[in-house]
Amino acid sequence: MKPAPFAYARASTLAEVFDALETHGDAARLLAGGQSLVAALNLRLASPSLLLDINGVAALRGVTFADGLLRIGALTRHAELGADPLVALHAPLLAQAVPHIAHAAIRNRGTIGGSLALADPAAELPACVLALEAVLVLASRAGERRVAAGDFFQGLYRTALRGDEVLAAVEVPPRAGASCTVQELARRHGDYAIVGLAAQSLGQGVQLAWFGVGAVPLRTPLAEAALAAGDIAGAQAALAGELDPPGDLHGPPALRLHLARVLLGRAAAALKGH
Amino acid sequence: MNELSSVDRPNSYIGRSVPRPNAKRLVAGRGQYVDDLRLPRMVHVAFLRSPHAHARILSIDSTAAKAAPGVVRVVTGAEMAAVCTPWVGVLHHLKGLKSAPQHALVVDRACWQGEPVVAVVARTRAEAEDAVGLVEVAWQELPAAVDMEAALATGTPVIHPDLGDNLAFTREHVGGEPDACFADAESVVVQAVFHTGRHTGVCLEGRAILADYNPAEGRLTAYHSNQAPHMMQTVFAKHLGLREGDVRVVCRDVGGSYGIKVHVYPDEMATAALSKMLGRPVKFAADRMEGMVSDIHARDHRIAARAAVTKDGVITAMEIDDLTGIGPYSVYPRTSAVEGNQVVNLCGGPYGLRGYKARTTVVFQNKTPTCQYRAVGHPIATTVTEGLVDLAAEAIGMDPAEIRRRNLLADDVYPFRNLAGLAFEGLSHHACLTKLLAMMDYEGLKAERDALRAKGVYRGIGIASFIELTNPSPFMYGIGGARISAMDGATVRLDPDGSVAIASGVTEQGQGTEAMLAQIVAGAVGVDLSRVRVTTGDTETTPYGGGTWASRGAGIGGEAALQAGNALREQILVIAGAMLQAAPESLDVRGDAVVDRDTGAERLPLEELGRIVYFRGDTLPKDLPRELVATRHYTPKDYPFAFTNGAQASYLEVDVETGFVKLLRHWCVEDCGTVINPMLVDEQIRGGVVQGLGGALLEHCVYSPEGQLLTGSLADYLLPMSGEMPDIAVAHVETPTKESALGAKGAGEAGTAGAPAAVQNAINDALRPFGARVFAQPFTPARILPALGKI
């Protein structure tokens, strides 16, 4: 379990990152927290010729609130996300998700940008930014472009990120006062969820974003509408038409659908309890 | 003054929770595991492993691999076969057991996904792995025999055509009158089909070997992460064409073993052979991915079982039909028939039955070989037996604790031979159960469970009594022709500074063997524990022995150490008597000195005695013996095995909406005879319980229909982790074996033996209001929810 040979370089500015991406193209991989990438290297599931360490790029760091937007730098570690007062105030859903992410050692290194760019369909943060209707800021030599979370996740481990781009930050419209809950079922604490749900309600609206039930995190608009109308059973019933979960080692598709209904019931109770 | 027994001396350490002498070193990161060792001119090997469950090699092209940076040698099966002879994993006493010759590297046909095919030796492991990726093997895939249920069916490929079929072994045992019991019109018959999922033992330190063949002296030294160095000495010698005396096996620190590291593995044999071929040290350290497909698996059983019970709660008979798939080869040299054989031996073990019938069918399949893993066969037999007992209790409306009280062998019935033919010297089922029920506050717990049910919280209580085989005599392997010692020895020596050195044939794998040996010898000689040091795991410097497995370290190795320690004390006192002109019987050793036995007054520091003996022997009487070293060996003779017993209980909650199980509490009361170090025994029990809980709830080697292991990493093969583990309370009843002065029986496997059964019974207790039951491990949401009719 040794990685194939690779070169390592450390970038300190975005310009250096863009240089490397231009020169090496797909053969370069960006190293942030490394919590998935390094394992993939050791398993030889990934064998880039260049590992470009972006941990020193200041432009990717920090959490700010300005002009009515919460901006979370891509290098924000999970542990920082969970402890940040601005996140707790404006995007409490993210703060609630953090304890569910793996284990403390992983949360100390793993980054929100890494998690979103990897787009593991069973991970918490992609579903959270989907529920938050956040915008992902993608930087390239040409400048920044903004992609809605709903358009960012395009398939299994596939995102809207182009080869010359870096995920720079996440911008979240403020949700102060929102009720929110993260519900997930994992066989052991810290494992990827069999089924998970990031849910939020504010005013009349309800957002439900599922993880572990498909190739990408998913919203379920019919269930959201039913839940917004106070019809929990209707929301649960709607899931059969909106989710088409895969079977795997945990069990058949029917298991996931059943568990999703259970989680929806629990999420509804949690949202109401706020 | 009363005569004190040899284990009950005034300065004894028996029964004291002293810290392990090696703990500080290991915690400080100063251990020496195989992968820590670096020898001059050492190279590394990585293996190309079969990607298919069953496939023929058409051709191998190593050209690119040989040209890769750092590569020293690329070796195929045909070249390997010229250096390392194949082996066959059979034993005479397992009548009819058959297996096929197994090679270190596949010669022409791979029989499981993960079987080593080509060895690539390079300067570093990374370079060896790079080059493995360049070896081109043209495979012809063959139909695979994967499902054990279909192994003997027409149309299933026969894995070894020379053997005729895929049946490795079968045995049926009938005791008493089972048919009459089942035919009794007054009795109720209960039945179930149990599955114990295939799983494996995951050691913190993976398998590893550093083989150093020195052509100048024609000797092989193997630094090996292993439990049985003397067994491996024999195996290396036999299959590499060396004399046993020219092989040295050294087991320094070993990071867990659980039976995984007591078998002969083709990749380890290949590493030793490569060292002989290259004349230089070769290291192999299995990574986790290759460990998952090449470490032995275990417990892949389907058991159809039934029991007859009278309406007043007497369980009269059990009938067991066991089927197990062992992979394509019976593992050498202990064989893969032992687990099924143990199921036949152990089912019904705690109970006084009138009829017992049991059969095992052991079949070949194209999966990773299975063999002995901690508590071999016990968790299976206990799960079946205790599952049947609970079904019987439910069928006649009796409390699960009460039906056990009525059927467990009485504590005064021993010695006793049961219908399976097992001889019990002395067990304590009732004492253990009584203590268990008191510890857990059984009645209070039941009341709590019942009160919570009214609130829609479904908790269950499960009890499991069990027996455990420990201290095996030559009846386990020796009579079958295996050169696996049932005897063990200890050498104990007094050095001039008054310190004591022990060398023992039993081995340390992290469980505290060396602490146990030090305590016994410190007490026997009389010295302070801090003056004792222990050497284990070196065929060159320790007495010949079997190593540590089958819970034999304390019972056999400990007794040898006790006898050797007593002999050294006698030697010291004879010499001291001559120096002090006192009768040796009037003296004793306590602390750092020879003392007056009655008053405890110091007479002579040991250091002074050592100085005189070693450096001024001229001052001693000419005919005085001056041996300050004694070796003693011990082998159990009166009983084939020292059986122990115990009882466990689990308290848990089933989320009936999700099918998730939350473990709340776990209790174990067991009887390993004399407890030498309560802390170490308790932690052995707890660790064993956790492994049992893992098997019950999480761990599962899942294969595709084509024979591909789907749970090939620790992301998919779920190990129990601390967050999900309950508090585990441990207590003891002590019934020492009279066969030895020490009285110790084994404690290493009791936790694993009983935990899955307790969990199974607790889950079914929680599900009882719904009429739902589960008997297939691991008990996952995907199994519990269908039982509840939720999916």
From TrEMBL, chain A:
SMART domains, per the entry: CO_deh_flav_C (SM01092)
Residue intervals of the FAD-binding PCMH-type domain: 1-177
InterPro entries per record: CO_DH_flav_C (IPR005107), CO_DH_flav_C_dom_sf (IPR036683), Diverse_Substr_Oxidored (IPR051312), FAD-bd_PCMH (IPR016166), FAD-bd_PCMH-like_sf (IPR036318), FAD-bd_PCMH_sub1 (IPR016167), FAD-bd_PCMH_sub2 (IPR016169), Mopterin_DH_FAD-bd (IPR002346)
Keyword entries, A-Z: FAD, Flavoprotein, Oxidoreductase
Pfam families xrefs: CO_deh_flav_C, FAD_binding_5
Protein name stated in the entry: Xanthine dehydrogenase family protein subunit M
UniProt source species: Falsiroseomonas frigidaquae
TrEMBL record, chain B:
PANTHER family per UniProt: ALDEHYDE OXIDASE 1-RELATED (PTHR11908:SF132), XANTHINE DEHYDROGENASE (PTHR11908)
Organism this protein belongs to: Falsiroseomonas frigidaquae
The organism's place on the tree of life at top rank: Bacteria
Record key words, sorted: Molybdenum, Oxidoreductase
InterPro entries hit by this protein: Ald_Oxase/Xan_DH_a/b (IPR000674), Ald_Oxase/Xan_DH_a/b_sf (IPR036856), Ald_Oxase/xanthine_DH-like (IPR016208), AldOxase/xan_DH_MoCoBD1 (IPR008274), AldOxase/xan_DH_MoCoBD2 (IPR046867), AldOxase/xan_DH_Mopterin-bd_sf (IPR037165)
Statement: the UniProt record of this protein carries the keyword Oxidoreductase: yes
Oxidoreductase is among the record's keywords: yes
Protein name per the record: Xanthine dehydrogenase family protein
Domain Aldehyde oxidase/xanthine dehydrogenase a/b hammerhead: 28-143
One Pfam family cited in the UniProt record for this chain: MoCoBD_1
